[in-house]
Design goal:
This protein is mainly alpha-helical. The chain has 22 helices and 4 strands. The longest helix is centred in the N-terminal third of the chain and has 27 residues.
Length: 468
């Protein structure tokens, strides 16, 4: 019954996602950033140049994530659909590898498949199931590393390069290698633990030094200095509570499993859940959201599968009601989230018109809050991460005022924003500083508005006599 409910739920998730995958418009802010980085790799442009020139190029993820995305772009052309199909494939592969690990640890294929595919149905995971982001790519590499470590006594060391690939997708994906090292030490495999940590450390340092040399020393800035946004512990707690509460039965089963006294290979799961909880603290940054809990959700499914297996073997009488409760919670969650009102399509209703407006502008000097319209139109990206730039600007950390000077000179022929400059000044914005919004308000006027996420307001210079 559980496997049937999970398979049906996963099918409903995929069915609802098809239209969103095919959408030619940017759905999530991070999609534009990923596609821009992938295109730069595909066109042999520097990924991590000096960010303080113009155009402003900022990339916050490791090169592996961008390279994987670049590999699927058809003929090197921008394609959100191709990138989303990649993430769907990675998500399904992630669930299958998780299922294989659970099958080996529980000796049950149906438990492995049930709790592996369960990941795809989790309400919080569904947000990232198809969006072109770095998280799922990196977590898949981590999960392959975990599988090699747990399932291959002879070839466990092959896990090291996969953990390295995960770190160079997104360096916050430390939970899996830290859990492996902790598991080795706790099981008194000190020699293997030393080999593991030295192997991963040396590989990471060598890759880091090569990237530093290839980027004239700017790689470290892009990775570690592009997060000036504030940190909030309450944001982390709220995000974690939302993720846990969205699948309460799975969370409760995972926590119950982690509280048991496991030894050997099984003991890895509780360690992984604990460490991934700590690594998810990065969700407290202003620009972060539930994507920082993707690895925690994987660990949660791993622990829940082991807990379910333990329940069947030791408390068989309680298995039937738990199965019914778990199955019902999965189906109810999927059906509720499949409602049209829960889909982002409403916010994209006029994106066709908005993207056409940008494409028809006939200018290459377009400043946009979201990169999607520029990428689709084949226009130059003048600020590759407006959020990061805006956070630097708001805190007075950017070394020059080039962008604001260009706005005052009416250099840009079109500016694309999500809100009117006056509204930004009054209510604040995570992207535009107050001074930059004021400059836009003085030098530009609104010429059109659309219902299109991130591209609602189109502004052109107030005067035709502009200095270029």
């Amino acid at each position: 019954m559980l496997l049937a409910c999970v398979v049906l739920s996963a099918f409903l998730v995929i069915l609802r996602t098809i239209a969103l995958i095919a959408s030619p418009y940017q759905i999530d802010y991070g999609e534009g950033l990923m596609l821009d980085g992938a295109l730069r790799i595909r066109h042999a442009q520097p990924l991590y140049p000096n960010p303080f020139g113009f155009p402003v190029v900022l990339h916050v993820y490791g090169p592996v994530a961008y390279a994987v995305a670049a590999a699927v772009l058809p003929a090197g052309a921008p394609s959100f659909a191709a990138g989303r199909l990649l993430i769907v494939a990675c998500s399904i592969a992630l669930s299958l590898v998780l299922g294989i690990v659970l099958r080996r640890l529980t000796s049950s294929w149906w438990i492995g498949l049930s709790f592996g595919m369960l990941l795809l149905t989790l309400p919080a995971f569904r947000f990232w199931f198809y969006l072109l982001r770095a998280d799922v790519i990196g977590v898949l590499f981590s999960m392959i590393g975990i599988a090699l470590y747990l399932l291959s006594e002879r070839y466990w060391y092959w896990s090291i390069p996969f953990f390295g690939l995960a770190l160079f997708c997104k360096y916050s994906l430390l939970a899996a290698p830290v859990a492996v090292f902790a598991h080795l030490i706790l099981n008194r495999k000190l020699k293997r633990g030393v080999v593991f940590i030295l192997g991963l450390g040396v590989a990471a340092i060598l890759a880091f030094l090569v990237l530093q040399a290839k980027t004239d020393g700017w790689f470290v800035f892009h990775m570690f200095s592009t997060h000036p946004d504030r940190y909030s512990l309450m944001q982390f707690i709220a995000g974690g509570a939302l993720v846990a509460a969205s699948a309460p039965v799975v969370t409760a089963l995972a926590v119950w499993c982690a509280a048991q006294d496991f030894h050997g290979a099984r003991g890895f799961a509780p360690i992984y859940l604990a460490v991934s909880t700590v690594s998810a603290l990065t969700a407290g940054k202003l620009g972060s959201t539930t994507n920082h809990f993707v690895e925690w959700m994987v660990a949660c499914c791993l622990c829940a599968g082991l807990g379910y297996s333990l329940l069947l073997s030791k408390y068989a009488a309680k298995a039937a009601p738990l199965t019914a409760l778990l199955s019902a919670s999965i189906l109810i969650g999927v059906v509720a989230q499949n409602r049209p009102s829960q889909q982002p399509s409403r916010e994209l209703a006029q994106c066709n018109d908005a993207y056409r407006f940008v494409s028809n502008s006939g200018s290459s000097r377009v400043l946009s809050e979201t990169l999607g319209p520029l990428l689709v139109a084949g226009k130059p990206i003048l600020i590759s991460d407006p959020f990061v730039y805006g956070q630097f600007d708001k805190r007075g950390l950017w070394p020059n005022r080039n962008i604001e000077d260009l706005v005052n000179q009416q250099y840009f022929d079109l500016i694309v924003m999500s809100r009117e400059p006056a509204e930004v000044k009054a209510l604040g914005s995570d992207v535009w500083s107050e001074s930059l919004a004021g400059a836009i308000g003085r030098s530009y006027r609104t010429v059109d508005r659309f219902t299109c996420r991130g591209s609602e307001v189109m502004l052109e210079p107030v005067s035709p006599d502009r200095a270029h």
